[in-house]
């Protein structure tokens, strides 16, 4: 079986890492190829991870996207709809691809042409919540095209499938995880006298950094800063490249908000950890992991990794697909600093509870995300 992965560019988030682990899980059952959206700088850094791909090709492909973090403009949407994927079609034909695995919902506009011009089966992997549903023109376009032209639709949790009203072609397949990596970190865990609480996320407002800082103020008032340390992993740092400087200036306004609030509350026990290519090392240093995301989606890859590292988790939202209330963590309302502080204080005060929740989370992650079961389930979907 020949499988072609189509990836909307490489980054350091969940979609890219999940694709690498997917390819690892499929190999050697499938012959793997990859097409990625062209991005010279990032692709150059991460291309070394494609150790299971027989061939990698970069193509400029416009996207049509709708995220809680932002949505394509209507003008750009109309323009991108006209893109014709001739390079992708040629690649599929030349390499006799059996399965086209599109690792995102952002390429719905190319499905019709590929369906009409090739014989390969199309699998669309929905990793994003479409926040507006059928009432929104862009969301409706993505949903309708995906339902009409995809042979199978995979979602990383039941939440992404709510807008796709099709039982026949939809599947829930949690992201895979390589536990050998995180198990090694657990075994090397360092001793520390303070209790460390932290988050790891893109440095953008929707990730809830400001809510975390407000919660820290409330916690410090109760604990008087004794034996408690907080961490924000992913704090922006200046880079010498043009792209790096552009990203720095874009994040500068939000960074100023974060810095201002830290200074206003006179917080001295918060460590700002710069962006790192190895977030697992930093997450493993924590005793409690939080995800104060304002969108209320408690199921990102960081959640899986924190569970695999045996961390109790506090996350926003209501989905119990990964976080089971009082078992491996707590679910709270988005934007509620008081509730976040209360749950953190409960875990600070109870080491036994922290350990029990961490162990429960690890067991649940192994059950849902192990690579052996993932490989078998994915092959069944392909067939």
Silhouette: globular
First and last CA, distance: 10 Å
Whole-angstrom Rg? 21 Å
What proportion strand? Answer: 15-25%
In total, how many beta strands? Answer: 15
- The level of helicity is 40-55%
User: Strands of the biggest beta sheet: in what spatial order?
Assistant: 3-2-1-6-7-8-9
- List the secondary-structure elements in sequence, H or E: EHEHEEEHHEHEHEEHEHEHEHEHEEHHH
CATH architecture of the largest domain: 3-Layer(aba) Sandwich
Q: What composes the largest sheet?
A: 7 strands, parallel
What is the topology?
Blueprint: E1 2-7, H1 14-26, E2 31-37, H2 40-46, E3 53-59, E4 66-67, E5 70-71, H3 74-80, H4 86-94, E6 99-102, H5 111-117, E7 121-126, H6 137-149, E8 152-155, E9 170-172, H7 179-187, E10 195-200, H8 209-223, E11 228-235, H9 242-264, E12 270-274, H10 279-284, E13 288-291, H11 301-308, E14 313-316, E15 329-332, H12 337-348, H13 351-369, H14 371-382
Parallel strand pairs: 1-2, 1-6, 2-3, 6-7, 7-8, 8-9, 10-11, 10-13, 11-12, 13-14, 14-15
Antiparallel strand pairs: 4-5
How is this structure best described in words?
With 383 residues, this protein is an alpha/beta fold. It has two domains: 2-173, 3-Layer(aba) Sandwich (Rossmann fold); 179-368, Rossmann fold. Helices cover 42% and strands 19% of the residues. It has 14 helices and 15 strands. It has helices spanning 14-26, 40-46, 74-80, 86-94, 111-117, 137-149, 179-187, 209-223, 242-264, 279-284, 301-308, 337-348, 351-369, 371-382; strands spanning 2-7, 31-37, 53-59, 66-67, 70-71, 99-102, 121-126, 152-155, 170-172, 195-200, 228-235, 270-274, 288-291, 313-316, 329-332. The strands form three sheets. Strands 3-2-1-6-7-8-9 form a seven-stranded parallel beta sheet, with helices on both faces. The chain has a six-stranded parallel beta sheet with strand order 12-11-10-13-14-15, with helices on both faces. It has a two-stranded antiparallel ribbon with strand order 4-5. Strand 13 (288-291), helix 11 (301-308) and strand 14 form a beta-alpha-beta unit. Helix 8 (209-223) crosses helix 12 and helix 11 crosses helix 13.
